[in-house]
Design goal:
Blueprint (H helix, E strand, L loop, with lengths): L3 H20 L6 H32 L1 H4 L5 H9 L3 H14 L2 E2 L5 E2 L4 H9 L4 H10 L3 H4 L3 H14 L5 H15 L15 E7 L6 E7 L2 H14 L11 H19 L12 E6 H5 L5 E3 L3 E3 L1 H10 L2 E6 L5 E4 L8 H11 L14 E5 L14 E5 H9 L3 E5 L2 E5 L23
Parallel strand pairs: 5-8
Antiparallel strand pairs: 1-2, 3-4, 5-6, 6-7, 8-9, 10-11, 12-13
């Protein structure tokens, strides 16, 4: 990379950037700093044009395909360390503002000639090119005759220097709707039903998000009925929003299904939670771990999960090599769980009426601190109150073999213990 004409040009570019940076140093006047910002943006757009030109040239030569890539997007992503959407943005620009080669080997002009002109001059950036290309690939644009379509491209390109990409998209959408006055041809066939659900993990923090759509009314109703059944407020003091209650209700249902094992096998095994923990964390009594899909666990969530979850522990050494993969097992045996169920009759938290099937078993004295898996150290809690115990200042303790709960001082300064009323085993006379 450092040899030959490219290497020489690269050194000169670095020197020019260094000179520009020095000119905009700490003692520079405000006007000089503003001028430097404009120069930086001009340089960035110039380099974007150079990248797009090089990408188009490599595509025309078939270099990416020769080197095993079916898509130039994947090649650019791997070569330059870009996210795929960044690479795709350059590929879209290369396909639309650069000269192409026809199947007969004859050069073809750019698909968007007016956009190519403003992009080459630096008046339009990469995002402007992407917006124009997508607008002119939309349904309303495809219904235009060639002359009207070309005129729309000219108008969009002319406004790229005036509008931000978002503004250009809004204005361009209105323009195409105005030009496409007749709209699509009438179609009496019913639209195809679309049922889809996307799960995506957060890139920079634990957890993830779901986004779904169900055109099939029966499928949607089945999901809605399950969520609605579990999303009612726990009591008058339940301050969770409707959206939060629905999200946690759906998660509770999934936890129940995992626990009961009524799912098809995945990769030859029954779906379970896989908890990955480093050896040094395990030696510190499991202060940190991560899930297969959800990412890093906080110590509080790990302790909650360890109470009564059917999990597969995977222990890693310092280099990430698995040292041990445990068997799927429950911390609390079924017989002992039945005993806790008889005593607590569901969630033991005062005012909660969640049945046993919706509850976990919590160690009052946490197992990593030596708490035994015994009836006198276990309490049944629904997922909401289980999280509350692990993530807030509520405390639970056992007195005379029964659980009682101490509220945080901001709720009750005296922290008077609370417990559910005991069952009436004999008729009241």
């Amino acid at each position: 990379m450092d040899a030959g004409p490219v290497g020489t040009a690269r050194e000169r570019l670095q020197q020019a950037i260094a000179q520009l940076t020095d000119a905009a140093g700490p003692i520079a006047e405000p006007d000089d700093l503003i001028a430097a910002l404009i120069a930086y943006e001009e340089a960035r757009r110039f380099l974007d044009r150079a990248v797009v030109d090089a990408t188009a040239d490599l595509q025309r030569r078939g270099v990416f395909a020769e080197r095993g890539y079916r898509s130039p997007t994947g090649a650019l992503s791997d070569l330059l360390g870009w996210e795929r959407f960044e690479a795709r943005r350059r590929v879209i620009a290369a396909e639309n503002v650069c000269e192409q080669i026809g199947l007969d080997g004859v050069p073809l002009p750019a698909r968007l000639p007016a956009t190519a002109t403003v992009f080459a001059s630096g008046e339009a950036g990469l995002r402007h090119v992407e917006v124009i290309a997508r607008l002119l690939d939309s349904g309303p644009a495809r219904r235009l005759d060639p002359k009207t379509w070309a005129g729309a491209e000219v108008q969009l390109a002319a406004n790229a220097a005036i509008y931000t990409p978002s503004e250009l998209h809004t204005w361009g959408t209105q323009l195409l709707e105005l030009l496409d006055q007749d709209g699509p041809e009438p179609d009496d066939t019913p639209p195809a039903q679309l049922n889809e659900l996307r799960l995506s993990r957060f890139r920079t923090r634990p957890g993830g998000k779901l986004a779904g759509r169900y055109d099939d009314a029966a499928l949607f109703d089945a999901i809605a009925a399950v969520v609605d059944a579990g999303a009612a407020p726990r009591d008058a003091d339940d301050q969770r929003s409707s959206a939060q209650r629905q999200a946690e209700a759906l998660a509770e249902v999934c936890v129940q299904v995992l626990s009961r094992g009524r799912l098809p096998e995945t990769g030859g095994r029954r779906p379970q939670l896989t908890v990955t923990v480093r050896l040094e964390d395990l030696e510190r009594r499991a202060s940190s771990a991560s899930l297969e899909f959800g990412g890093q666990l906080t110590p509080q969530t790990l302790r909650q999960l360890a109470c009564d979850a059917a999990v597969i522990p995977v222990v890693l050494d310092g280099t990430g090599v698995p040292l041990d993969v445990g068997r799927t097992s429950r911390t609390v045996p079924d017989g002992l769980r039945r005993a806790v169920t008889v005593r607590d009759r569901g969630c033991a938290f005062p005012g909660c009426d969640r049945p046993p099937s919706w509850c976990d078993i919590h160690h009052v004295r946490e197992w990593q601190h030596g708490g035994p898996t015994a009836l006198h150290n276990l309490v049944m809690l629904c997922s909401v109150h289980h999280r509350l115990i692990h993530h807030s200042h509520w405390e639970v303790r056992m007195l005379d073999g029964l659980p009682e709960f101490l509220p945080p001082s901001w709720i009750d300064r005296s922290r008077t213990p609370r417990r559910k009323p005991p069952p009436l085993l004999q008729p009241v006379e």
